[in-house]
Specification:
Helix content: 25-40%
CATH architecture of the largest domain: Alpha-Beta Barrel
Shape: globular
Strand content: 15-25%
Number of strands: 17
Distance between the termini: 18 Å
Bound molecules: N-(iminomethyl)-L-glutamic acid, fe (iii) ion
Largest sheet: 8 strands, mixed
Structural class: alpha/beta
CATH superfamily of the largest domain: Metal-dependent hydrolases
Length: about 425
């Protein structure tokens, strides 16, 4: 079984809360990975003995002390010297729309000269996606996955929603499932052109044949509950149908204005309600009393020139907050979690520590996963070594590529 020791870590973010620190920060730490899982986390001084083992590289020097038992049993250990750099859990991007054709650069350009963002643009991407072959979409997806990994994202969710026929939604769910277990059926993204005069018929289709075709490839059901998309009553019906097919609910809500998305998400026990840009005091109170994560997507406000969501208000009220990219061709064509962290700190009142937590452990909670987003014994060995001595640099040095090395399931990406 392959084993890797990452040692001489200047600042290790474990997200295993300790001593009042929700990020469970350790200094001068080491992590042992065995068979793709975290086998041991502790002080670097306790992990020195094995550094000269064959296969090691960049061997550093550490004061002699006891090795952890688990370490002394490893053969052929690879040793990585972090040289005092910071290590964090891999980013968990709990909200993307990565299977689509075309792009909408022209719309972005028009917005930057004053045009508003409207949900209707989704239909343009639907047309381009329907026109793309499986292989074209698959190749695009592979490029996005490489882009995510290079930026430190080790777990990601993908939604359907640019097909909107039974066959097209089925192939988007199937293609997404080739690259992630976190697939969300979003047939209720917008009512497609051909159903614009018979929207009830479209809701029937989503709840019937389309759901039936997509459920085998999906874990989640989502609905865009917003003016211009689906009403709360339609959304309620769609989520209930998904749950009846074994899917778990999540909701797009309160993105373009105040609305019922948050209330619906809490009522349905959704894992997450995403956007949360326009919230009433009642929405915030309902979230605080629920298990529903508020997932904030600041790439959207950045690229639509909307006001940013108020993360401080949510956190101070006791709401669990996640950050995600919402990577899609319309409202947020970026997959950069470091950018989300920088925006959350600069524009949304989050501290650097809160933003890093929200982009890792928060995303894991939004996906109801406890094996990612934390560096705890037994969890998946998904880690990012930064080209910096502290995670604070993710917000302090915006736009600078700080992701140095990425491990996914213990293997260097
Ligand atoms: O999350 N809100 C709905 N869906 C996407 C936008 C999709 C698009 O404009 O193509 C979002 O922002
Ligand atoms: Fe979205």
């Amino acid at each position: 079984m392959t084993a890797t020791l990452i040692t001489n870590i200047g600042e290790l973010t474990t997200n295993v809360a300790a001593d009042g620190d929700p990020l469970g920060t350790l200094h001068d730490a080491a992590v042992l990975i065995v068979g793709g899982r975290i086998a041991w986390v502790g002080p670097a001084s306790a992990a020195h003995d094995r550094e000269s083992t064959s296969g090691g590289r960049e061997v550093g020097s550490h004061p002699a002390s006891r090795s952890p038992d688990v370490l002394s049993r490893q053969e052929g250990l690879e040793v990585v010297d972090a040289g005092g750099r910071a290590v964090i859990p891999g980013f968990v991007d709990s909200h993307t729309h990565l299977v689509f054709g075309g792009d909408r650069a022209d719309e972005f350009e028009a917005r930057m000269t004053g045009a508003p963002y409207a949900a209707g643009g989704i239909r343009r991407t639907v047309a381009a996606t329907r026109a793309a072959s499986d292989d074209e979409l698959r190749a695009r997806l592979a490029a996005f996955v490489a882009e995510l990994h290079a930026q430190g994202t080790t777990t990601f969710e993908i939604k359907t929603g640019y097909g909107l026929t039974v066959a097209d939604e089925e192939r988007l769910a199937r293609l997404a499932a080739e690259v992630t277990p976190e697939v969300t059926f979003l047939g209720a993204h917008v009512v497609p052109e051909e159903y614009s005069e018979r929207r009830a018929g479209y809701v029937d289709l989503v709840c019937g044949a389309m759901l039936h075709a997509c459920a085998p490839h999906s874990r989640w059901i989502d609905v865009f509950c917003e003016r211009g998309a689906f009403t709360p009553d339609e959304a309620r019906r769609i989520l209930a149908a998904g749950v009846a097919h074994g899917l778990q609910p999540r909701v797009h809500g309160n993105q373009l204005g105040p609305g019922d998305g948050v209330r619906l998400a809490v009522e349905r026990g959704a894992a997450s309600v995403d956007h949360c840009t326009y919230l009433s005091d009642d929405d915030v109170a309902a979230l605080a009393e629920s298990d529903t994560v508020a997932t904030l997507l600041p790439g959207v406000e950045f690229s639509t020139r909307q006001p940013y969501p108020d993360a401080r208000r949510l956190i101070d009220a006791g709401v669990t907050v996640a950050l995600a990219s919402d990577c899609n061709p319309g409202s947020s064509f970026t997959s950069s979690m470091p950018l989300m962290i920088a925006l959350a700190v600069r524009e949304m009142g989050m501290t650097p520590a809160e933003a890093v937590w929200a982009a890792t452990a928060g995303g894991a909670k939004a996906l109801r996963r406890d094996d990612v987003g934390v560096l705890a014994v037994g969890g998946r060995a998904d880690l990012v070594m930064l080209g910096a001595q502290t995670r604070v640099h993710l917000a302090y040095r915006p736009g600078v590529p700080l992701v140095n090395t990425v491990w996914i399931g213990g293997a260097e990406a």
